[in-house]
Amino acid sequence: xxxxxxxxxxxxxxxxxxxxxxxxxxxxxxxxxxxxxxxxxxxxxxxxxxxxxxxxxxxxxxxxxxxxxxxxxxxxxxxxxxxxxxxxxxxxxxxxxxxxxxxxxxxxxxxxxxxxxxxxxxxxxxxxxxxxxxxxxxxxxxxxxxxxx
Length: 149
Description:
Strand order of the largest sheet: 3-2-1-4-5
CATH topology: Rossmann fold
Oligomer: single chain
Distance between the termini: 27 Å
CATH superfamily: 5'-nuclease
Strand content: 5-15%
Structural class: alpha/beta
């Protein structure tokens, strides 16, 4: 029996995957892109994604500046995520906050968004899909999470 594999996506990975909506280049590796693509397009995928709620908050704050982008994001990202059997939106709960507070020293230069996203990966014991060099460095030094770029 093959087991399912859970991955956590950070904001940059979601923006990169949906690069056409945001008008940016796609910077994910083939492996990272393939994991996200398989999970979004295949409800029977053995890959599962956890997207921390903080990712959506950060996208709302920094990227959804025009009504056309909001509508496109809603229909092409949020609705498929909401309806998917292989993708979850991970809530910000007291466990996530507690781990984020412990990370404050290790990721002191990062904003709260990143700390909460990394905290979700630690709690879920899942690799994080990211291209953020500071998160990658933290993962390398701490050994608490692995990274898929």
